[in-house]
Amino acid sequence: MPRTTDGDGTPVPQRLLAAATRLFAERGYDRTSVQEIVEAAGVTKGALYHYFGSKDDLLHEVYARVLRLQQERLDHFADADEPIEKRLRGAAADVVVTTIENLDDASIFFRSMHHLGPEKNKQVRAERRRYHERFRALVEEGQREGVFSTATPADLVVDYHFGSVHHLSTWYRPDGPLSPQEVADHLADLLLRALRP
Amino acid sequence: MPRTTDGDGTPVPQRLLAAATRLFAERGYDRTSVQEIVEAAGVTKGALYHYFGSKDDLLHEVYARVLRLQQERLDHFADADEPIEKRLRGAAADVVVTTIENLDDASIFFRSMHHLGPEKNKQVRAERRRYHERFRALVEEGQREGVFSTATPADLVVDYHFGSVHHLSTWYRPDGPLSPQEVADHLADLLLRALRP
DNA sequence: GCCGTCAGACTAACCGGTCGGTATGCGCGG
DNA sequence: CCGCGCATACCGACCGGTTAGTCTGACGGC
């Protein structure tokens, strides 16, 4: 009985995406064969290439999902009716929490970007930049208002913070002593403390 | 005329290492074939497998070189006869400068770690941890002396800073407006400002 | 004449992607 | 309400190409 779902209840494309996400995060993009993905999803290559144009497409889809989620959340915090200090803190902490909650996607994102073909790479970079610029605008707003120090260019501040987010997949362990929210609060605090005039 | 050196004056193993470093950084470990490496070095596979046991060995050798260099430099700054504030600032800025000056090695390091076999991976992680702990000790020393804030656990502070270092290869462009030293000063400044009591 | 150094042909495995074929359920004419 | 026909969903064998690694042997200095 083929019909979008199978053995379990989830549709095949989502099962493939989930399996690919896990395997890419575990072994990396290149070390994961299409065969392994379809086996983990309980289908065959025919099914995969029925829904996705290529192995690249699969990776791109993972990226798109993360990007969409993070942009939505950033917009939400940036548009809130709060003082700039609170909005930046909220956004800075939230990106940490959502990154930890999707550590697989995050590690794929930062480790496998260069496996994408040139045009898809450009597309992802453009969306990344949009995100970066929205975040930077928050820092600049605070600097104009005199709430944040202008000692460091806003660009560098943003890269500094995102560096730590990027780095999370390297050292954060879910079974460690700190909850995602605690880590997020600490990292946001470090950012805000660094920005004190 | 086979004999440690060839066309140019540099010994074959070093030529292979240099070629591998450049190609790994450009295309990534998996996308670089052994054939490409030996062609770039002006030799053949026979030469490569005469000096290195495997492609993995090549990668491991690149890591070992970076690790050795960074550990040496950190020890130098940490052992200096200066107030803790100055020692930490020096170390924090120096790791940025040397990372920028060896951006190829750095991007390989952070992107290809997981390509190493299990035992070699463990070895690299152990050396990494040694480095991390030396750095953390500096932060803790300052915290004990009351020079640095204890609001954030030293571990997190170190990961925060290394995150930005890790991230450098993503955004730093040599033809950009900031020199390596300027970037380093700014990032070290951010760290020290975040640590103000 | 022997040993370090390397060339280059070779192999066995594996990869992403294709393709002809099959089964299932839905729309629709009767 | 039936059954025909087609679109959709999927299977699995297969292909051309690539890969890391091996092996035999030769060249040249000591």
UniProtKB/TrEMBL annotation, chains A, B:
The keyword Transcription regulation applies. Keywords: DNA-binding, Repressor, Transcription, Transcription regulation. This is TetR/AcrR family transcriptional regulator. Residues 33-52 bind DNA. Pfam families: TetR_C_24 (PF17932), TetR_N (PF00440). InterPro entries: DNA-bd_HTH_TetR-type_CS, Homeodomain-like_sf, HTH-type_TetR-like_transc_reg, HTH_TetR, KstR2_TetR_C, Tet_transcr_reg_TetR-rel_C_sf. Residues 10-70 form the HTH tetR-type domain. It comes from the Bacteria.
